[in-house]
């Protein structure tokens, strides 16, 4: 669960690009820092003054975001202060305290953020440019929202810790890592009673963690692109300089080589209008490549100790409802590098459609044919109180129908049938479920250990076989 410790702190300090010198501070150097900061924040929101061995940097957050007022943003006045001390080795030691209370209104929604006991401490190297290391913490962060669609919602995080690191892997390119955790998290949502019966959603969890690793991040090119957008705040300004914009976009490609993220929550409970849900733990892994030639994205979700509201379900359902699952899937075989560059090359902000239909068609062609794209599944697993199913395979996105192979292995099918059979007298729908399970069993093969397997094959025409036996749907194989 990620909450930024400092708004735009990286953009603020990217401007400290002049070589740091551990010498007595001066008004002249303060002016140089201010001018550099304005490259990223625009004129007006920043002031810099000498403060002993440090420079005091004050950021007017309302003024910094004033360009968003055209989109309807109304920001309450707020300012943030940080200290930057030049070091002998050319780096800057940057520290900051608690973020001031923030309140913003946009599209009928009012959001307030209040932080307590917040701190930040980091070393910024302008030659990279990035924080080579930093740490941060807060005692609590509260986020409240009132809107036209949702009556109110509130989020609370406590005892947060954050650390970052970065190392140069090329000119203006870094590998970076961000780690953040909280001792507890909660969220309460009250829905608008005017649109029906009032209802609430409450989520609570114990410890949370989030680890993000980015490889090959083009941080200098992205900073230059941000500075360009600050210097060209209107559509007309961008149109008149779109040649420079396109050059900067090309420099930023492929943005990053790889982005991997692991998040987890423990002891989750949810109170919903249909009843309580709970999980002992949830883990999510996300992995994606940037705008590269070897496109790949994967997602894994693991849960343990899942419970659902039993009183809303048929009496036999508990034997089939998953108590845990471990799901893995990925997609590969697409190419974003040439498609992205073709889009940048053909971009025309002066045209009615900045990307013409012809350009979009070319980008789709460069992305690659869908029949070369592969969705991989597994190894994955789903368990209930009676069943334990494992499966894996792959799907080729062919036309007219996907071609696929999938292997499923399960234990406990007979136990599930017996458990549901015991409920059949009280619930006639149990007989229908038993019939479906027996049909599934009939297509399976029994292994020596008593487990059952199903080998599913789709040939891309719509025909599907299970263990070599055609299913009675679609074209016959």
Supply the key terms.
about 475 residues, alpha+beta, six-stranded antiparallel beta barrel, disordered N terminus, 10 helices, globular, about 20% helix
Brief synopsis:
With 477 residues, this protein is of the alpha+beta class. The protein contains 10 helices and 25 strands. The protein has helices at 9-14, 27-41, 61-64, 219-231, 235-240, 242-252, 337-346, 357-367, 413-421, 429-443; strands at residues 46-51, 54-60, 74-75, 79-86, 92-96, 102-106, 109-116, 119-125, 130-147, 150-170, 173-182, 184-191, 200-205, 208-217, 258-272, 275-289, 295-304, 324-334, 374-383, 388-396, 403-411, 445-446, 452-459, 464-466, 469-470.
SSE inventory with pairings:
Blueprint: H1 9-14, H2 27-41, E1 46-51, E2 54-60, H3 61-64, E3 74-75, E4 79-86, E5 92-96, E6 102-106, E7 109-116, E8 119-125, E9 130-147, E10 150-170, E11 173-182, E12 184-191, E13 200-205, E14 208-217, H4 219-231, H5 235-240, H6 242-252, E15 258-272, E16 275-289, E17 295-304, E18 324-334, H7 337-346, H8 357-367, E19 374-383, E20 388-396, E21 403-411, H9 413-421, H10 429-443, E22 445-446, E23 452-459, E24 464-466, E25 469-470
Signal peptide: 1-22
Protein name: DUF2125 domain-containing protein
Keywords: Signal
Explained architecture:
- With 477 residues, the protein is an alpha+beta fold.
- Helices cover 21% and strands 45% of the residues.
- The protein has ten helices and 25 strands.
- Strands 10-11-14-15-13-12 form a six-stranded antiparallel beta barrel.
- The two termini are 49 Å apart.
- The relative contact order is 0.06.
- Keywords: Signal.
- This is DUF2125 domain-containing protein.
- It comes from Lichenifustis flavocetrariae.
């Amino acid at each position: 669960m990620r909450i930024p410790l400092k708004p735009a702190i990286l953009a603020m300090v990217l401007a400290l690009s002049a070589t740091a010198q551990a010498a007595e501070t001066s008004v002249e150097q303060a002016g140089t820092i201010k001018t550099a900061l304005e490259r990223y924040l625009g004129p007006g929101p920043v002031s810099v003054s000498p403060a002993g061995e440090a420079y005091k940097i004050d950021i007017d957050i309302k003024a910094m975001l004033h360009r968003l007022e055209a989109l309807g943003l109304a920001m309450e006045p707020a300012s943030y202060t940080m200290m930057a001390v030049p070091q002998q080795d050319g780096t800057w030691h940057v520290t900051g305290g608690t973020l001031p209370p923030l309140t913003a209104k946009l599209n009928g929604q009012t959001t307030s953020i209040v932080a307590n006991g917040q701190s930040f401490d980091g070393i910024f190297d302008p030659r990279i440019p990035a924080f080579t290391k930093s740490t941060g913490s807060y005692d609590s962060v509260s986020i409240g929202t009132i809107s036209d669609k949702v009556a109110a919602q509130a989020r609370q995080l406590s005892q947060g810790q954050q650390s970052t690191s970065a190392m140069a892997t090329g000119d203006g390119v870094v590998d970076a890592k961000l780690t953040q955790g909280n001792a507890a998290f909660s969220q309460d949502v009250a829905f608008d009673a005017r649109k029906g019966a009032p209802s609430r959603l409450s989520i609570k969890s114990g410890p949370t963690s989030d680890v993000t690793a980015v490889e090959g991040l083009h941080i200098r090119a992205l900073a230059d692109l941000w500075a360009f957008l600050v210097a060209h705040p209107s559509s007309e300004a961008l149109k008149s300089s779109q040649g420079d914009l396109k050059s900067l976009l090309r420099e930023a490609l492929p943005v990053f080589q790889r982005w991997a993220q692991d998040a987890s929550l423990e002891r989750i409970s949810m109170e919903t209008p249909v009843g309580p849900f709970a999980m002992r733990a949830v883990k999510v892994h996300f992995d994606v490549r940037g705008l590269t030639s070897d496109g790949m994205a994967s997602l894994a979700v693991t849960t343990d100790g899942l419970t659902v509201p039993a009183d809303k379900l048929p009496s036999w359902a508990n034997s089939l409802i998953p108590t845990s699952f471990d799901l893995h899937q990925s997609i590969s075989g697409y190419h974003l590098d040439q498609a992205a560059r073709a889009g940048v090359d053909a971009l025309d902000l002066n045209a009615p459609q900045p990307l013409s239909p012809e350009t979009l068609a070319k980008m789709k062609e460069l992305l690659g044919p869908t029949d070369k794209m592969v969705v991989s599944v597994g190894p994955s697993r789903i368990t209930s109180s009676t069943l334990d199913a494992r499966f894996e395979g792959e799907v080729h996105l062919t036309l007219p129908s996907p071609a696929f192979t999938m292997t499923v292995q399960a234990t406990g099918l007979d136990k599930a049938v017996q458990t549901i059979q015991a409920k059949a007298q009280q619930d006639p729908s149990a007989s229908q479920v038993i019939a479906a399970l027996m049909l599934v069993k009939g297509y399976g093969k029994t292994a020596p250990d008593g487990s059952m397997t199903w080998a599913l094959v789709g040939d891309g025409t719509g025909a599907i076989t299970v263990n070599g036996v055609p299913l009675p749907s679609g074209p016959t194989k």
